[in-house]
Amino acid sequence: MSAAYENSSAPPKPQVQPCRYKTGKTLGSGSYSVVKECVHIDTGRYYAAKVINKRLMVGREHMVRNEIAVLKKVSMGHQNILTLVDYFETMNNLYLVTDLALGGELFDRICRKGSYYESDASDLIRATLSAVAYLHDHGIVHRDLKPENLLFRTAEDNSDLLIADFGLSRIMDEEQFHILTTTCGTPGYMAPEIFNKTGHGKPVDVWAIGVITYFLLCGYTPFDRDNHVDEMTAITQADYKFEPEDYWKDVSETARDFIRGCLTVDPNARMTCHKALEHPFLVEGHRGNDLLPVVRKNFNARKTLHAAIDTIRAIHKLREGGTMDGALSISPENQKEKEIAKQTVGLWRKPAGGVMKP
Questions:
Q1: What pLDDT sits at residue 169?
Q2: Where in this chain does the entry annotate a coiled-coil region (predicted)?
Q3: How many domains does the chain divide into?
Q4: What distance in Å separates the CA atoms of residue 279 and residue 346, rounded to the nearest whole number?
Q5: Taking the C-alpha atoms of 186, 146, 61 and 86 in order, what is their torsion angle to the nearest 10 degrees?
Q6: Start-end of H helices in 93-142
Q7: Which of 144, 160, 165, 205 is catalytic?
Q8: Is 86 a catalytic residue?
Q9: Which of 127-141, 210-224, 329-343 has the lowest mean pLDDT?
Q10: Do residues 252 and 283 touch, judged by C-beta distance below 8 A?
């Protein structure tokens, strides 16, 4: 754990008390928690509650405390950051109560549109970058920015885009830059300095913004490779291209220049959030031609490929675990515990309803 986090004042431990909320339908689930729609018993207002099983989180309680600390510091300070409404614990569970975000995930929303232009991508990145700049100004690095963590507040066309899931975020000491050393995040969006273990800070979020921008303009990520080793090598060398040309012919040079400024290997030479917000890509809002046909085609192809890869990996995993004629060689309960033990700091999976990362 970083010195900055260890030295920061830990949030007070929530008091054990009766639950003041009535939970409803499940919006998403993961290995350690479930997200449910909930209503405050006294006020009748609806929220989303991340319900975290305390037994399954033994030894990882710091992640929840950290998420509470970060959200308490920035909640209600920026319209593009998910608001923490309440937090408490009962005998068995920890609860993080937030505003509902029922507008769905970023890329799913794009694919449902009738048209999609470079200026639309620019608007989305500007909103995200503005929120990240706010986090950085308050000494917080997110460390897990990706499309799945960008949610819409409502289904309306003018809905706010929200940054969610602060489980891997850190409150940093402004006087210390290279202080975070834990390898964490989603590999395709992680900056070179995380893989190189040279220490990292706020610039990792700008790198992730560059990957997200590339993704929003073509439908696939810049460092997609056949295996994790090749992917890591590509990232550490910033080995990417704006190819094939058919997919990029309608993307402006200004947008490409913005991506280059974010995907700079040296974090000291990488754009800061405030510098990036001044870039012509975000200021001028070039419209160009409709990008949706290419973006949707590539995104759907990528989903199909990754689903096939996940299926193959699952089959190999079952074989390695010792299966015969479809029967596990260990009990399902032990298999589940074995899987839980393998989990790293990226604890929560993608929710079904696009609300809060469980």
A1: 59
A2: none
A3: 2
A4: 32
A5: -170
A6: 106-111, 118-137
A7: 144
A8: no
A9: 329-343
A10: no
Mean pLDDT of 79-91: 86
Burial label, 144 (beta-carbon count in 10 A; 0-12, 13-18, 19+): buried
State how beta strands 21-29 and 84-89 pair: unpaired
The CATH number of residue 40's host domain is: 3.30.200.20
Q: Radius of gyration over alpha carbons of the chain, in Å? A: 21
For residue 258, the model assigns a pLDDT of 98
pLDDT at 192: 93
User: Token digits for 319?
Assistant: 């074989």
Within a domain: residue 279? yes
Is residue 239 in some structural domain?
yes
Residues whose CB is less than 8 angstroms from the CB of residue 260 and which lie 6 or more positions away in sequence, other chains included: none
Residues 51 and 189 reside in one and the same domain: no
Q: Which of 81, 98, 115 is the last residue of a domain?
A: 98
DSSP state of 105: B
Of the candidate ranges 146-155, 220-229, 251-260, 331-340, the one whose mean pLDDT is the lowest: 331-340
The tokens for 184 are 């964490």
Mean predicted confidence (pLDDT) in 135-156: 88
pTM, two decimal places: 0.75
**What are the distances in angstroms from CA 32 to CA 93, 98, 132, 259, 321?**
10, 18, 27, 35, 22
| pLDDT tops 50 at residue 356 | no
336 is in an annotated binding site: no
